[in-house]
Amino acid sequence: MPTRIFGRQVTILNNPHAIQHVMVKNHDNYERKAPQQRRALEQLLGDGLFISDGETWQFRRREVAATVHRRKLDIFAPVMVDATEELAQHWHQMGDGAQVDALVEMADLTAEIIARAVFGSKLGRDRTLEVIQGFTDYQKVVNQINVAYFLGADDGWPLFPGPRRRASIARVHRVIDELIAHHLSGRGDPNSMIAMLMKSVDPRTDKPMTPVELRNEAATIFMAGHETTAATLTWAWYLLSRAEWAEDQLHRELDEVLGGRAPTLADVPRLKYPRAIIDETLRLYPPVPILGRQAKEADMIGEFPIDAKSLVLVIPWLLHRHEEFWERPHNFEPDRFLDKRPKFPFAYTPFAVGPRVCAGTAFGQVEAVLCLATLAQQFRVRVPEDANVVPQCRLTLRPRGGLPVTIHPRRDRG
């Protein structure tokens, strides 16, 4: 049901049929992300795929989707496993009971993976930390409540680029610009995502993408590819630590399927329980818990009139816990995703749905499964019983202040 904030209509969709209407059947009218989201990210991502629309989005979507398509996963899956094995070696060296922040560890891992996939080269510890800290600092200072939009400015107002925001943006752009310059000088990996994007030609100009456009897409892929998967893996460790029965079932399947060796892309279809754990984690802790769209023209959603330029919100955090669509919606039950899909397809939207579904969905799902399988095969991860774990939504859904854990090598490996 629509409501109003300072006269601006806001509609929250909590019905699969309404979500299907907005994101699939009438998606052309709702292709624009919410003004708050566009303004919050434009200084960091420019006209990158995540916040662009119209012809720019159509061209970039086609090119970016080609770089992360399932057919490319045979190139990128070994990168995922190699980087995770390096982290596992580091964990072994730290010893039984080592204390770490799981969010930091997973962010380091996924940043390294996406760097190797996007740029074809190791990012290195210093540059990895630079990028991660840049994204983290940006989330701390960005404000997704654009008051000007509710006061009548249909596109909202640009955010004031304060010194902390400028510094965080500069940290991310500096590293990405260096890596792009490396590729433009002819020293890049031809199998990297950025090398593939460099070959693309914009049909509107008959010219390749400029260095700034390449940076915008690289920053978008970087943010989407490392932030969301890092958050998902972090929440998966939290849930497994609180459900040892699920962890035991996970270990049994890993021992049976892998027998102590590292997983490969060919193993993913057989790793059904790790995939179910990731799917259930995405249900309970969707990395982007609010999906905002702006209506281009007036519309009707069911019996409710929708104003032109109004805000329409799909909130996976609520939708995924709705008692009408899920049995025991607040319970962690990976089995609900074993060999079956949700009863209401549009009630499960961790990556959105329709034409604007995340282009890297397949990449991210395979990455999460391979990372979880590689590490869980070798370790148990424990969250202290007295840890105060509170979800916090900025650009993504993270545990506020990180997730303290202890790491324990498995003694019962098959």
Salient structural properties:
14 helices, five-stranded mixed β-sheet, single chain, globular, 50% helix, 414 residues, alpha+beta
Could you characterize what this model shows?
The chain is an alpha+beta fold and 414 residues long. The chain has 14 helices and 14 strands. The chain is globular and about 60 Å long. The N and C termini lie far apart (53 Å).
Strand order of the largest sheet: 1-2-10-7-3
The biggest sheet, with number of strands, parallel, antiparallel or mixed sense and barrel status, is: 5 strands, mixed
Number of helices: 14
What is the CA-CA span between the terminal residues?
A: 53 Å
Spell the H/E element sequence.
EEHEHHHEHHHHHEEHHHEEEEHHEEEE
Total strands: the figure is 14
**Mean pLDDT metric:** 89
3D shape: globular
Strand content: 5-15%
Q: Which structural class do the helices and strands define?
A: alpha+beta
Instruction: Enumerate the spans where pLDDT stays under 50 for 5 or more consecutive residues.
Output: none
Computed over alpha carbons, the radius of gyration is 21 Å
Fraction of residues in helix: 40-55%
